[in-house]
């Protein structure tokens, strides 16, 4: 932009320099908010993002999930950043206009700062942290009240450059500070030690895991491997101390349980596998962990459900909600530990639900309320067209192909069929004409656990490998191909495996 073109003409409603400085105010205001709040729900972008997520129509969400996938988050987060910058820039513009119209620079700056603080407080409900956004808005509004004049355009250019450089420096420092401030997850006194029962189970999973050449999860996924699906970009950051769960609605008695009361209940350790209804047929939103928690049933019995529909709405701190039958909930589990440690923030700290054999979306994280209903209602994803509250589809994944030292090709993966269990995995190396049984890992204890499979064969030029699982009821995985939307992907995973591919993986 040519600074010469920036002098204020009195007939301009807003001048270029006012636009420039209000944008700098907006960007640095957002950076300042990040510096004091970190990547948490007190950061000005977080509530805006939650609103964007809530208001995005289901069809668009479904389209993004299917066509953009994981990167879909970037779209709404970019929009949310733009809105936050726009809002703060707007407060600066108002200040700058008032300053110029009334010839009162300090009144303009004060107005911009107050507006920026007020708006940020309204958005984040954090008056003190809102000062982080208001400060830089005030500074850049103040600099902007000294208008460029055509007579001194060299000086104007210098002033614009200095301002831009200062803004960049400020943003850099804010990113550093914000990173330090972002803590997330259980506090160190909440992290917990791996107890003996969990480590025995983890060892069992380790010893039952097949010796697979390719790089895929063992029978227990690590924290790093375990997939994540969140409706919001900013996970709730809850402490166990402040947490409680209410069972309410159509019940004989309302119950509220605090974290300590929950963990005093009979504690169990269970292997439970999770799978997202939105994942592609051979996707990786399928993982398994050892969870520490307590069964839901006694709590439900205490509350004494009465509703007509025998169904429950589960709600969470991130405004997520899902509804499904009480029968499924009764088999459920309230977990506060994962692989022997406190539940990580991203998996629902301090308490999440695990519903055996049902799609991932029923496994509510950051749970705070179970409401028994009189009438069925749609949950968050069902409102957006998904049918993901029922039992999972059977699937065998083909996650690795490797060339072995013995000259053979190894294909391997995991298979999952919810509470039906996986009985057999079959592999075809001729595109589905003939089938052979794969080697399967010994079943882990538990009624909702995946298994690993592997299969070796003599390489030919190129061949079509197909895999399918047979569940505990003897039912073969459905062959017909369908997309994940709305009821979960179906079909058999197939891949053309040739020696070149296999040796490079
Ligand atoms: N509160 C809350 N619970 C939630 C979700 C969410 O966005 N918010 N996502 C659901 C979905 S769609 C899935 S597949 C699982 C994923 O759990 P994970 O992130 O621990 O793997 O959590 C479910 N529970
Ligand atoms: Mo999901």
Stretches where pLDDT is under 50 for at least 5 consecutive residues are: 1-5
Cα radius of gyration in angstroms: 28 Å
> Number of folding domains?
3
Which strands sit side by side, in order, in the main sheet? 2-1-10-5-6
**Largest sheet at a glance?**
5 strands, mixed
What is the overall silhouette? globular
Secondary structural class: alpha+beta
Strand content: 15-25%
CATH topology of the largest domain: Sulfite Oxidase, Chain A, domain 2
- Total beta-strand segments: 19
Tally of helical runs: 13
Alpha-carbon distance between the two ends = 50 Å
Description:
By secondary structure, this protein is α+β, with helices and mostly antiparallel strands. The protein folds into 3 domains: 7-182, no CATH class; 196-384, Oxidoreductase, molybdopterin-binding domain (Sulfite Oxidase, Chain A, domain 2); 395-504, Immunoglobulin-like (Sandwich). It has helices spanning 16-37, 45-55, 58-67, 72-102, 105-124, 131-144, 153-181, 196-208, 259-263, 297-303, 326-330, 380-383, 499-504, and strands at residues 244-249, 255-258, 268-275, 286-295, 311-316, 321-325, 333-338, 341-342, 352-354, 367-373, 395-396, 400-403, 409-416, 422-428, 436-437, 439-440, 451-457, 462-471, 493-498. The strands form 4 sheets. A 5-stranded mixed β-sheet has the order 2-1-10-5-6. It binds the ligand Nc1nc2c(c(=O)[nH]1)N[C@H]1C(S)=C(S)[C@@H](COP(=O)(O)O)O[C@H]1N2 and molybdenum atom.
């Amino acid at each position: 932009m040519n600074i010469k073109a920036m002098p204020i003409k009195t007939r301009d409603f807003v001048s270029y320099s006012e636009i420039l400085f209000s944008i700098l105010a907006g960007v640095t205001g957002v950076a300042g908010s990040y510096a004091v709040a970190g990547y948490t729900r007190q950061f000005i972008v977080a509530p805006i993002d939650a609103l964007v997520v809530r208001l995005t129509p289901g069809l668009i969400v479904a389209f993004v999930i299917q066509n953009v996938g994981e990167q879909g988050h970037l779209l709404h987060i970019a929009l949310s950043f733009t809105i936050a910058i726009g809002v703060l820039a707007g407060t600066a513009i108002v200040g700058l206009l008032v300053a110029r119209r009334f010839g009162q620079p300090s009144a303009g700056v004060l107005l911009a700062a107050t507006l920026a603080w007020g708006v940020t407080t309204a958005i984040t409900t954090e008056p003190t942290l809102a000062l982080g956004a208001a400060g830089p808005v005030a500074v850049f509004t103040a600099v902007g009240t000294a208008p460029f004049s055509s007579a001194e355009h060299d000086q104007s250019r210098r002033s614009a450059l200095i301002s831009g450089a200062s803004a960049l420096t400020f943003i850099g420092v804010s990113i550093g500070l914000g990173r330090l401030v972002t803590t997330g997850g259980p506090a160190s006194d909440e992290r917990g030690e791996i107890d003996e029962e969990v480590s025995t189970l983890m060892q069992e999973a380790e010893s039952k895991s097949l010796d697979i050449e390719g790089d895929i999860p063992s029978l227990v996924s690590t924290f790093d491997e375990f997939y994540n699906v969140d409706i919001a970009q900013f996970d709730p950051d809850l402490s166990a101390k402040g947490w409680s769960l209410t069972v309410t609605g159509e019940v004989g008695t309302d119950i509220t349980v605090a974290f300590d009361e929950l963990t005093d209940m009979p504690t169990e350790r269970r292997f439970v596998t999770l799978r997202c209804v939105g994942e592609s047929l051979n996707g990786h939103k399928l993982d398994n962990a050892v969870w520490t928690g307590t069964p839901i049933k006694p709590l439900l019995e205490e509350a004494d459900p009465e509703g007509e529909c025998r169904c429950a709405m589960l709600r969470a701190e991130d405004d997520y909600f899902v509804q499904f039958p009480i029968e499924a909930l009764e088999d459920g589990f309230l977990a506060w530990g994962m692989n022997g440690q406190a539940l990580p923030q991203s998996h629902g700290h301090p308490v999440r639900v695990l519903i055996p054999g049902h799609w991932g979306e029923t496994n509510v994280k950051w749970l705070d309320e179970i409401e028994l209903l009189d009438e069925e209602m749609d949950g968050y994803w069902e409102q957006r067209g998904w049918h993901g509250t029922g039992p999972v589809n059977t699937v065998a994944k083909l996650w690795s192909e490797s060339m072995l030292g013995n000259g053979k090709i190894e294909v391997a993966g995991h298979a999952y069929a919810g509470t039906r269990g996986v009985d057999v995995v079959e592999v075809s190396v001729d595109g589905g004409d003939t089938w052979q049984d794969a080697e399967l890992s010994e079943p882990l204890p538990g009624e909702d656990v995946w298994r690993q499979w592997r299969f070796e064969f003599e390489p030919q030029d190129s061949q079509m490998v197909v895999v399918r699982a047979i569940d505990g009821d003897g039912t073969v995985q459905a062959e017909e191909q369908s997309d994940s939307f709305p009821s979960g992907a179906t079909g058999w995973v197939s891949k053309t495996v040739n020696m070149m591919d296999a040796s490079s993986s």
